Amino acid sequence: MTSSASDVRTAAAQLEEQLRNLPKVSLHDHLDGSVRPETLIELSAAVGHELPTQDPEELSEHFRQNANSGSLEQYLEAFTHTAAVMQTAQNLRRVAKEYVEDLAADGVIYSEVRWAPEQHQQQGLSLDEAVEAVQAGLNEGMEAVAEKDGVIVVGQLVSAMRQSDRADEAVELALRHRDQGVVGFDIAGPEAGFPPSRFADAFTRLASEMLPATVHAGEGDGLESVRDALVSGRAQRLGHGVRVAEDITVIESEPDSEAGEEVFQVELGPVARWVRDRQIHLEVSPTSNVQTGAIAGFAESGKPELSDHPFDMLYQLGFNVGVNTDNRLVSGVTLSGELALLAGTFEYGLAELADFQINALESSFLGYEEREALAAMILEAWQ
Question: What's one GO MF term for it (predicted)?
Fold first, then answer.
């Protein structure tokens, strides 16, 4: 059962504050999509980059409107602005530090931040210098949180852009920094036309060195993209992955007199069954999936809404799902807000929302002992 959009927004506003004080896990968050608007304005002025407005609230609203426009081109406009100011070690360090502080303020205790160092070399930074600068900022942020008696652990995911064919270089970069903050690897960028099989050697290199990978798949392309991420990309997790629901068929439904609602029987195709049975984690970003059209195929008519998202079906069928923001600046969201929206849309209680945190933590690239310690903290708080 789902609720109306207006009811969901009202309930979400009331629930978000409560959720902000509970420990959470974020696995799919892009550094360049999560810059503070105030920082973007200040750094843009320093480098002579022109923004649509100099007012932080107006800038945030501009990006939100673009994200909700239904145009991927407009959605991506924000990244041209953030990338323009993230080209020096000093600026990367600042953005990374603030990233950690903002997540901690939202109650996140573990995060894996993804970004593509190859996109930050316009002013002469080497790939290694870029990674070192971001790690310095992450360390400063974690130390600042700890000084206020807070807890947060953040690891880097080095992303390679599919369209640039620098995956081999990015893999070697990730391996060089695996003991200095890098916890895994990712490929991002346009899915269609750039399958993981193009980078099979890079993924084999990762596997031989036992560095885990997550792969963007099932967002901008369909089932074959998911299949290739699992086969060629050897993905331990799927970035978004929501279009795996295309491999699920409703074969019949019948009324349940006791529950007062319909009960659906479904059939899982081979890709969906593999993902479900192997518990391949889906890094779902609900609002972003609506904005980018990733769930357009599941909408009954017109522009997709959150109630059209297959998230609840996947969860009810036993898929390993987690909740993420994708790009906090671009979409105008927080993790607490995303959880509150899901709770209102699909009538989840705290027990279900806690499940999503444990799913994400257990699927993270953190070490076993560290996962166990954070899991105990999460379970105690959410109870």
Answer: hydrolase activity
